[in-house]
Design goal:
alpha/beta, Carbamate kinase, VC0802-like, 12 helices, 20 strands, globular
């Protein structure tokens, strides 16, 4: 008998018919003899609706109350899925919000991190044959305030619960059949990947692939929890995300996938004093405001001054601008919006020279100018004009033979 955590995304619970399908999938697994725990996101479009309402009331809402509002989306989905399960007698489901099962987080609203899950309640329900239905995306801090984990945070909730319960696998159900070499909506010739390493999946998730939230993959890698990404609308196998030790033939695959992210803003700081601690002060202030900085480029200093460029997510643009205004002095801040980051990812790149040169050549042939570049052992990212994002993805996908 296996314990399986099944997480269903917004599209999987986007209508009454789909909610009933989720109940049937959970019931099918339990009939096979598996113990089942269900984690759900808010219904498709609900979180965006709540965000829109909040912004109409207050463009810069209070973080605590903002999380309180957004967490309500999952509450409705939990109730509906549990009710659907209870129509399939003699099986039963029971809904739980994050605080009811003891999902404890820090107090960084909208980007909270889980540090503890009290499994007593869940284990008691599972032992009775009940299918717990848990709200993803949310938890509570030590002062009993509701917190949220950031967009896509239900993936992290599911993986964390799977680890805490000692599950055999965490299944992430979505509206696609698995992880593809690129977004099939951009590259129709993209193919499904049967197995991918945690490292590659982390890079793809962090670089714009929407299949999994990066924090969920980081957590799975840390505790070696297999993730099975699969469709809630088809019965076929999806993509297994596992340790690279379990994968063979890595040397044969140089580039595994192409990812892109259109929500990029470039900040250029000019006339920055070239003295120790200046960069630490700037990026420390951004970190304190929970702003993730991505590509960073520093020019060679001249006459005691230097230029510093970096990118942040478009969702953090206003917050970053407010932080940077406090620098003062003669520092000039320039923003450039409507940019995209296009990346190639693959563990095989570590042992194949010339991959970067090929990427730059492919983009050059397509008349796509590169604004910033960042690399790691298994990825290369280029910042480009946002209007050329889809073109760049197709060019790179074809150029590296991923179709």
């Amino acid at each position: 008998m296996s314990l399986i955590v099944k997480k269903f995304g917004g599209t999987s619970v986007g209508s009454i018919e789909r909610i009933q399908n989720v109940a049937r999938l959970a019931l099918k697994a339990q009939k096979k003899g598996d113990k089942v725990v269900v984690v759900v996101s808010a219904m498709a479009g609900e979180t965006n609706r709540l965000v829109g309402l909040a912004k109409k009331v207050n463009p810069i809402p209070d973080s605590r109350d903002y999380d309180l509002l957004l967490a309500s989306g999952e509450q409705a989905a939990v109730g509906l899925v549990s009710l659907a399960l209870n129509t399939l007698k003699p099986f039963s489901g029971r809904g739980f919000l994050g605080y009811q099962v003891g999902i404890y987080t820090d107090s960084v609203y909208s980007k909270a991190r889980i540090y503890k899950i009290n499994t007593q309640v869940l284990k008691k329900e599972i032992a009775k044959g009940v299918i717990p239905v848990i709200a993803g995306f949310q938890g509570m801090d030590l002062e009993n305030n509701i917190t949220t984990l950031g967009r896509g945070g239900s993936d992290t909730s599911a993986v964390a619960i799977a680890i805490a319960l000692g599950a055999q696998v965490c299944e992430i159900y979505t509206d696609v059949d698995g992880v593809f070499t690129s977004d099939p909506r951009v590259c129709p010739e993209a193919r499904k990947i049967s197995h991918i390493s945690y490292e590659e999946m982390m890079e793809l998730a962090g670089l714009g692939a929407k299949v999994l939230q990066i924090r969920s993959v980081e957590l799975a890698a840390k505790f070696n929890m297999p993730i099975h990404v699969r469709s809630s609308f088809h019965t076929g196998e999806g993509t297994m995300v596992v340790s690279k030790k379990l994968l063979g033939g890595l040397e044969k695959v140089v580039v595994s996938g192409i990812a892109s992210d259109s929500a990029q803003v470039k900040f250029s700081l000019q006339n920055v004093p070239d003295r120790p601690g200046m960069a630490a002060g700037i990026f420390g202030a951004l970190a304190k405001a929970a702003i993730d900085v991505d590509i960073i480029v520093q020019d060679i200093p001249t006459a005691g001054k230097l230029s510093l460029s970096f990118t942040v997510s478009g969702t953090d643009q206003l917050k970053a601008a407010r932080v940077l205004k406090k620098i003062g002095g003669a520092v000039r801040i320039v923003q450039e919006k409507d940019l995209a980051k296009v990346s190639i990812v693959g563990v095989g790149m570590q042992h194949h020279p010339g991959v970067a040169a090929k990427m730059f050549e492919l983009l050059a042939r397509a008349q796509i100018n590169i604004k910033l570049i960042t690399t790691s052992e298994i990825k290369i990212s280029c910042l480009i004009d946002g209007a050329l994002e889809k073109k760049a993805v197709r060019v790179l996908h074809r150029g590296f033979g991923l179709g």
